[in-house]
Amino acid sequence: MSDKDLAIKVENVSKLFRIGFENATHDTFAETFLSFIKSPLQNYRNYRTLYRFDDMDFEKKQNTDNALWALRDISFTVERGKILGIIGINGAGKSTLLKILARITPPTTGRVEIRGRISSLLEVGTGFHPELTGRENVYLNATILGMRKKEVDEKFDGIVDFSGVEKFLDTPVKRYSSGMRVRLAFAVAAHLEPEILIVDEVLAVGDSAFQKKCINKMQDIGQLGATVMFVSHSMPAITRMCSRALLLEDGYVSKDGQTNEVVNAYLSAGLGTTPERVWDPASAPGDDVVRLRSVRVRSDNGKTLDFVDIRQAVAIDMEYEVLQGGSTLLPNFNIYNEDGTCLFSSLEQDASWKNVPRPAGVYRSTAWIPGNFLSEGTVYIEPAMMTPAPFRPHFLARDAAAFQVFDPGEGDSARGSWGGAMMGVVRPMLKWETQLLSQAVAVHG
Amino acid sequence: MNDNSNTIPVSVPVTVITPPQGWQLIDFKELKEYRDLFYFLVWRDIKVRYAQTILGFGWAILQPLIQIVIFTFIFGKVAQIPSDGIPYPLFSTVAIIPWTYMSTAMSTSSQSLVAGQAMLGKVYFPRLLFPVTPVLTHMVDFMISMVLVICVAVYYKVSLSWNIVFLPLFILMMMAVPLAVGLWLSSLSIRFRDVKFAMQFVIRMLMYSAPIVYSASSIPESYRLLYSLNPIVGVIEGFRAVLIGQDIPWQYIVPGMASTAVLLVMGALYFKRTERVVVDVI
Questions:
Q1: Nearest residue of A to residue B194, measured between CA atoms
Q2: Quick one: CA torsion of B219, B220, B224, B228, rounded to 10 degrees?
Q3: DSSP letter at B240?
Q4: Which helix (H) or strand (E) holds A365?
Q5: CB contact set of B59 (below 8 Å; sequence gap of 6+)
Q6: Does B165 touch chain A (CB under 8 A)?
């Protein structure tokens, strides 16, 4: 592959930061006083070390008490027109990598080559000033992101349309709601038309309708042939948008390849949870009889749910492929909370398949967990498959998927208007009935 | 699916990013690309400065006016400092207006990187825009306060001479001084917050280093060259001469021009050298 087809080429990039300074504690007053006098000199030395790294070993790249390698020997390439996802836990180095590519901070070692005009979206609404009106902030933000004034003039109406804040365009932004501000800022970013775009988790803002609008817009940008580097914690978004992904761990690239493989590496290492998980047929849990294909947490109308309202019923889809027909199979789920306690197990309850041998093919079994049943917190799903008699287990996928249960506190969940702690691993809304049996007679003294 | 049959342009801008090394020159081509942003940054600061105030740009006149009144009373009447035969109010007005510009621009410019650290960490544009923007935004205040100069000059029936043609030169020199100071101090400010505290004090002292409240002729002959190396001296003397219609005392001005040029060039080099690590050191 010639360099001409590469939009981004990263070679052996590393980044070293100074962190914290040890403050010696002193035992005597004399020591304390002396260190107070010496402190300007010490402070100056400390400041000098912030960007000088003569004391560090560049071969081994070990972290020390006051220096942290945020990135170590990162190398990868991105072809023009491809979308690359970058995943990793907080602190793995994703944002630092983006900052280096955006030229905000320089690498400590290594080299980056970027072919094309690069636009970076590390924050929504950079440069927004509360005293300026929406219209003025659009121009400011757009030019900060790299557009020319002429460009903004041409795209202005489109930007305003996308944001939906036309009515308030000439009021100072400080009077906007935070949602409006985000929509306006994103509208500007959405009209960037970049050749190369790097995006840092900025999609985690705004309501879900708007988020969908933004993801669609990003896909459009990809369709136009732009190269995109996309950092996110949302496995569904990464899987949907990226053909390739990088997993960063502790500053290293620990996996570079097809999105599904990398996402699975991330999830298998217990680094994150997702409400939707798809397995590569070659490495999917299962045996020669049946293999698990995917698990998904969704709502009534098919929407994948990261966060579930405690009052809401939740569907769990399990898709599996029966390779050898003729066995009776019993799909089941084990549900755990974040402490590892098993909340309950559930076996398939579909009468049409009970004790019926299943022909080969692809199946989807769905279980419904009723609303007002689960407790708040993270819920882990363990899909499993067995042949009941003679007993034979086929697969048990630990921590396959997870979702969060939250109570919006509107008063009609099991906790009602009680704001305090509630015990219990489940929180069913039981039927209660109270009757006044006999009224006490008031005694007047 | 992406259709890779798009023709790839023959000349694609290639950006190479490497660890910072050595001295670098200012990339003027890049600055030209960002001129729209520069315009909006200047315009933003101007618009925001007096937002939600009653007097608005009236402060650009009120602040120097109060200073002139107080100085005229204290230095002119009470201390009776000699002012080369020029009426003291006129003497101080033509000096205070450029000085107000220089001191406020110096102050804002040297804090520009610190004030903009939110943007510094989130988006890239030539960092040079930070110290340069205040040099332009404060010009608006300067031009408004020139009204004061005009009023005082008319009152004292000043007759201008042909050397008013040098006024743009002195205005340029007046802008170059805070720019040079801003280039040096803005990146220093990021690393050592002491700069902010030192500046408040130093600017007050600097006012006495130039012939604003006293006349330059009170400086002994042997110290004149050293004294004139201070570019502020040159700016004030130049303004005074040109706005009152007197001969321009070049001996006070030329050394200052030389030192400004040196400070500017070295300041720009220093700024470029440190601008890349600025984000790591905030």
A1: A40
A2: -10
A3: H
A4: strand A361-369
A5: B50, B53
A6: no
Q: Where are the alpha helices (DSSP H) in chain B?
A: 28-33, 35-49, 59-71, 88-110, 112-115, 117-120, 129-155, 167-191, 194-206, 224-228, 231-244, 250-275, 278-281
What was the ipTM of the complex prediction? 0.82
Q: Is A122 on the interface with B (CB under 8 A)?
A: yes
Q: Is the dihedral of CA A112, A114, A118, A121 positive or negative?
A: negative
Angstrom distance (rounded) from CA A216 to CA A445 = 77
Residues in B closer than 8 angstroms to A135, CB to CB, are none
What is the pLDDT tens value at each position of chain A, 445 positions in all?
A: 566 788 899 999 999 887 765 455 555 667 767 766 777 777 666 666 666 777 777 777 777 777 888 999 999 999 988 899 999 988 888 989 999 999 899 999 999 999 988 888 888 788 889 889 999 999 999 999 888 899 999 999 999 998 888 899 999 998 988 888 888 888 888 888 888 888 887 655 556 667 677 777 777 887 888 899 989 887 877 887 888 999 998 889 999 998 888 888 888 777 777 898 888 888 889 999 999 999 999 998 888 888 888 999 999 999 999 999 998 999 999 999 888 899 999 999 998 998 899 999 999 999 999 999 999 888 999 999 999 988 999 999 988 899 988 887 778 888 888 878 888 899 999 999 999 999 988 776 5
Q: What domains does chain A contain, in order, with CATH numbers?
A: 72-117+194-268 (3.40.50.300), 276-406 (2.70.50.60)
Specify the pairing of strand A377-387 against strand A392-396. Answer: antiparallel
- The alpha carbon of residue B32 is apart from the nearest alpha carbon of chain A, in Å, by 11
* A360 Cβ under 8 Å from any chain B Cβ: no
Choose among A103, A123, A144: nearest Cβ to B17: A103
CB A423 within 8 A of CB A432: no
Whole-model pTM: value is 0.76
Interchain proximity A223–B14, CB inside 8 Å: no
Among A388, A404, A384, which residue's Cα sits nearest to residue A396? A384
Q: Where are the alpha helices (DSSP H) in A71-196?
A: 94-101, 134-144, 149-163, 178-190
Q: Do B277 and A51 touch (CB under 8 A)?
A: yes
Question: Contact B219/B193 with Cβ under 8 angstroms?
Answer: no
Taking the CB of residue A391, how many other CB atoms lie within 10 A of it?
Answer: 8
